[in-house]
Design brief:
The chain is built from 20 helices and 22 strands. It is of the alpha+beta class. Strands 2-1-5-4-3 form a five-stranded antiparallel β-sheet, sandwiched between helices. The protein has a five-stranded antiparallel β-sheet with strand order 7-6-10-9-8, sandwiched between helices. The protein has a five-stranded mixed β-sheet with strand order 12-11-15-14-13, with helices on both faces. The model is unreliable at 251-256, 724-738 and 783-788 (pLDDT under 50).
């Protein structure tokens, strides 16, 4: 369509608008006709909805009436006193009165359907058989409350509705309670009377026999027991329970000609065998739709010409305003962010103009923020380079404070304070600028010290309070607060704790700290925190290397001592053997006994040296725990099995509870502890004595005990049994003396695992050594372990 490209924007708009207006009018006409059809359907659905609302109201009233009837029927005692029956029936009448239900009579029937009591005219109704009413006989047969259609009231013949429900004693029916309702003066009939549906519309309530129960105006006056003009159709709809909506004709007598076509909406009442019908003249009901159809046809043609005129007038203004926006967009593209975009009107073009201007302002703000961020990043890069330039933390901090004062335009002076771990005061570590005389310590606390300090908002409230108190205390103590006009304090935070802060102050009235200044200062404080953390980690790494070197030297020293001690022992033993072989005057038996003594003493001396070396490792801190799963009952069994063959004079027992925890520990050292305690018990237990190894689980760990039946330990010696070279030289309390190294080594091993060891003993009643190991320290579990 090359001819369109040669046309101006205004002409193209007019031409295209005309085409689209024609298409639009055609489409509008089609949719309008369709909408009118849908409007007609909606009107019919509306009529059906009104019918449903009326039916729902009838269901609500009748349901409440049936519930009250059923409740009263269950409580009526037909054999009870007359006064009690009258009181219960009076309560029912009161309840119906509150529900705006008018009762003609209330009857009480026996199981044969005969009247045994009535609220009115009992003398005339007594003994009357009422099963002729279908709803009453169905109530007696089904034992369920029933609502009848329109029937003649007993005795009076007045049109009425009967509500009936059974009275019972246990599970057997005794009789029927019947209420005759005057529907014309009750809430159901009264509810529909005020409803008006134009000049010809009215509402009917019909029963299952087609009898009209109630009718609104302007329908003709309701005659008693009048049938509707479609009784069979309504009866079928009530029986089927199906709502319907459509058109019908008004022929109230057979053979009459059709008077007019009506719109009919019909639905059933759920609680009773009734239906609600809404009827209105089709001409009246559809009059608004037909009128709207005509108006649409007339207005469609005029709309086309009005649209063309409007397009011609507005196109020139639209083109002009679009040209203004195009010029503004060219200025923005050329980098002019200061000239505003002029926007007129509140229409889309005006909105577009204002949007252009908002975009210009945001671009300008973004450009300025980008420049500010660039300056901040450049400053932070400089601070980072300063912090990485030297290992001397003090000189680095001084340089960083000076740089902070330099890069923040409003700053005149600055200082860095760090917390002293001993007393919680803040020590001034670096200052820059005038009126910042260094102080030795600043103790934070409430109170003013110059202007209020700004604190960055990203810190939590507790740290903000600490930083504000620290800043105020510094300004108050240093004298800078007397001249400062504004101040900012950025907290130095390590591991969620305020360990200091960097303070900058402004001494000029015309210089205030901006949000970017506060943000930049906090970033510098964060870099200081990382530098302090790095310095601490570096120091800890150096100390750890020193400790490892010390451990290596300790192990080397201990190995050297071991070699120097073992070599002379081997030489002594070899020399003794050589000497004895040269002495021919000793017989073979004497030599063998002497060699056996030398072997025993040498083994004891070697064992003593091993214990000395192990004790040296314990005291030197050279024990290296290699943890693995430890099954204490099995370990105890192993130690006992190894010790039992060396002594046949003692009885051993092992007692551990089921599911004893599995610990993470160094099995070698715990085995050494058990072995030392068992050997100690063997050494001091009398022949035939019982040695027991037991264990128990406590809330904070496990406890293992080794007990014997020896002579015991005196109370004054119990506190020293785990000391080095402890000896018991009194045979009355502990047999042969010992070195005490085994118990001292056991104590060191247990404490290395985070536990403790102790003794309980009474002279003459044996001794029990206990040691404990914590559960949480060793990650205990109970998998796969049973007590032995």
């Amino acid at each position: 369509m090359s001819f369109l490209s040669n046309m101006t924007l205004g002409r193209r708009i007019i031409l295209l608008t005309a085409v689209w207006v024609l298409i639009g009018i055609g489409l509008f006409g089609f949719l309008s006709m369709r909408a009118l059809s849908q409007s007609t359907e909606a009107m019919l659905r509306e009529r059906l909805t009104v019918a449903h609302l009326i039916a729902d109201y009838a269901d609500e009233v009748l349901g409440g009436a049936l519930a009250q009837l059923k409740y009263t029927a269950q409580d009526v005692d037909m054999d009870g006193p007359q006064s009690e029956i009258e009181a219960q029936i009076a309560g029912l009448e009161t309840a119906y009165s509150r529900m705006s239900i008018s009762t003609l009579n209330i009857l009480l029937l026996n199981s044969s359907g005969r009247v045994v009591w009535s609220s009115r005219d009992y003398d005339k109704l007594a003994g009357t058989e009422m099963f002729a009413y279908a709803s009453i006989s169905q109530t007696m047969e089904n034992r369920e409350p029933q609502i009848s259609g329109l029937v003649s009231a007993p005795l009076t013949g007045t049109p009425a509705i009967l509500l009936s429900g059974v009275t019972s004693l246990g599970k057997l029916p005794r009789g029927v309670l019947v209420v005759a309702i005057d529907i014309a003066h009750s809430s159901i009939g009264g509810f529909i009377r005020p409803i008006k549906l134009g000049e010809t519309g009215y509402i009917e309530i019909v029963d299952q026999n087609g009898l009209v129960i109630a009718r609104t105006e302007p329908g003709h006056k309701l005659a008693p027991f009048e049938k509707s003009d479609h009784p069979e159709r309504f009866a079928a709809l009530i029986a089927a329970g199906e709502p319907t909506v459509g058109t019908c004709h008004t022929c109230h007598e057979a053979g009459q000609q059709v008077e007019r076509r009506d719109v009919l909406a019909f639905t059933r009442v759920s609680t009773a065998p009734w239906g609600v019908a809404i009827r209105q003249s089709e001409k009246e009901a559809l009059a608004p739709t037909e009128e709207l159809r005509l108006r649409l046809l007339l207005s469609g043609g005029g709309l086309f010409f009005v649209a063309l005129l409007f397009v011609g007038v507005t196109t020139r203004e639209v083109v002009r305003r679009i040209g203004t926006l195009a010029a503004a967009s060219r200025r923005i593209a050329e980098g002019d962010l200061s000239s505003p975009v002029i926007a007129h009107g509140k229409d889309e073009i005006g909105t577009l103009g204002r949007t252009f201007d908002e975009m210009r302002l945001k671009l300008k703000t973004s450009y300025e923020e980008t420049q500010q961020r660039t300056r901040e990043l450049s400053s932070l890069l400089t601070v980072t380079e300063i912090l990485a330039s030297s290992p001397d933390l003090s000189s680095l901090l001084q340089a960083v404070v000076a740089k902070a004062v330099e890069v923040i335009p409003a700053a005149s002076s600055g200082a860095l304070l760090l917390k002293d771990a001993k007393d919680g005061s803040f020590v001034v570590r670096a200052v820059s600028g005038p009126d910042m005389a260094p102080l030795s310590r600043v103790v934070p606390g409430p109170g003013a010290g110059g202007p209020e300090c700004l604190i960055p908002g990203q810190a939590n409230e507790g740290i903000r309070i600490q930083a504000r108190e620290m800043c105020s205390a510094f300004l108050r103590a240093s004298g800078a607060g007397l001249k400062a006009r504004s101040a900012v304090c950025a907290p130095v935070v390590r591991q969620a704790e305020c360990v200091g802060g960097i303070v900058v102050v402004s001494l000029r009235d015309d210089a205030a700290f901006s949000e970017p200044d506060v943000r930049l200062l906090q970033a510098i404080a964060d870099n200081i925190a990382m530098a302090i953390e790095k310095a601490q980690l570096t120091g800890e790494a150096e100390q750890a290397r020193a400790w490892r070197e010390a451990d290596r030297l300790k192990s080397q020293f201990i190995s050297s001592i071991s070699h120097e001690l073992r070599t002379p022992l081997a030489s002594i033993k070899g020399y003794s053997t050589s000497l004895l072989r040269q002495d021919v005057s000793w017989d073979e038996v004497t030599q063998r006994e002497f060699l056996q003594i030398i072997d025993e003493k040498t083994d004891e001396l070697r064992d003593l040296i091993d214990k000395l070396l192990l004790m040296a490792r314990v005291e030197a801190g050279a024990l290296k725990l290699e943890t693995e799963p430890l099954l204490m009952p099995r370990l105890a069994q192993k130690v006992v099995q190894e010790a039992a063959p060396r002594t046949a004079k003692h009885e051993f027992a092992i007692d551990f509870p089921p599911n004893f925890p599995v610990l993470e520990a160094d099995v070698r050292y715990i085995e050494q502890v058990l072995r030392n305690l068992v050997e100690n018990a063997i050494k001091y237990s009398p022949d035939g004595g019982r040695i027991a190894v037991s264990g128990e689980v406590r809330s904070d760990g496990i406890v293992v005990g080794v007990s014997d039946q020896g002579v015991g330990i005196a109370p004054e010696h119990q506190s020293r049994v785990f000391g080095r070279f402890y000896r018991v030289d009194n045979p009355s309390t502990r047999g042969t003396p010992g070195s005490g190294l085994g118990l001292a080594i056991a104590k060191g091993h247990v404490e290395a695992h985070g536990g403790r060891i102790w003794v309980e003993s009474e002279p003459g009643n044996g001794t029990t050594f206990y040691f404990s190991l914590p559960l949480d320290h060793h990650g205990a579990s109970t998998e796969g372990q049973e007590g032995k």
